[in-house]
Write a structure and sequence with these properties.
Layout (H helix, E strand, L loop, with lengths): L13 H15 L4 H10 L3 H25 L6 E3 L6 E5 L7 H12 L4 E2 L10 E5 L4 H17 L1
Antiparallel strand pairs: 1-2, 2-4, 3-4
Helix pairs in contact: 3-5, 4-5
């Protein structure tokens, strides 16, 4: 959870490595000495492991919360997240595309999300929602998503 410190590694199929390194090397190489020392000192510390376990449990709980709420909202379906902290929601059952749904969700219900069209071709009917927020905020956001869908 050292966001912004740009420390990391890359694992990928051999045929992709050269292309990926062009981006990866500028994001994670030439890192400052204090960042390297901080990472080395904390990476396997018991406190770090405990914190990581807590984060994994929290994201798992939030993921389940969001999926269970989406299961109750007619017109929405989703791709079950297998990693990260985002869920890809198909809004086509509402009669709106992802861009329109995202704009209305922000303007009418003050919930921000990313339209799928901004993430690649073929995702125009989707929105991406992050569940990297506290449980109370997520529950409130899900209430507002449901309110918007019920209004349509």
């Amino acid at each position: 959870a050292m966001t912004g410190w740009r420390i990391g590694y890359l694992a990928a199929p051999a045929q992709l490595i050269n292309a990926l390194l062009k981006i990866h090397q500028y994001a994670t190489t030439c890192i400052s000495t204090f960042s390297q020392v901080g990472l080395e000192q904390s990476m396997n510390a018991p406190e770090t492991i405990a914190e990581m376990d807590g984060m994994v449990a929290a994201f798992s709980r939030r993921r389940k919360l969001v999926m269970s709420r989406l299961d109750q909202i007619p017109g929405l379906s989703y791709i079950e997240p297998k990693g990260a902290f985002y869920i890809f929601i198909d809004v086509s059952g509402t009669g709106l595309d992802g861009d329109t749904f995202a704009a209305r969700l922000l303007e009418e219900k003050y919930v921000g999300c990313v339209p799928g069209s901004k993430l690649g071709t073929g995702f125009e009917q989707f929105i991406r929602v992050s569940y990297a927020a506290d449980d109370e905020s997520l529950a409130r956001a899900m209430d507002r998503i449901e309110e918007l869908v019920n209004k349509l």
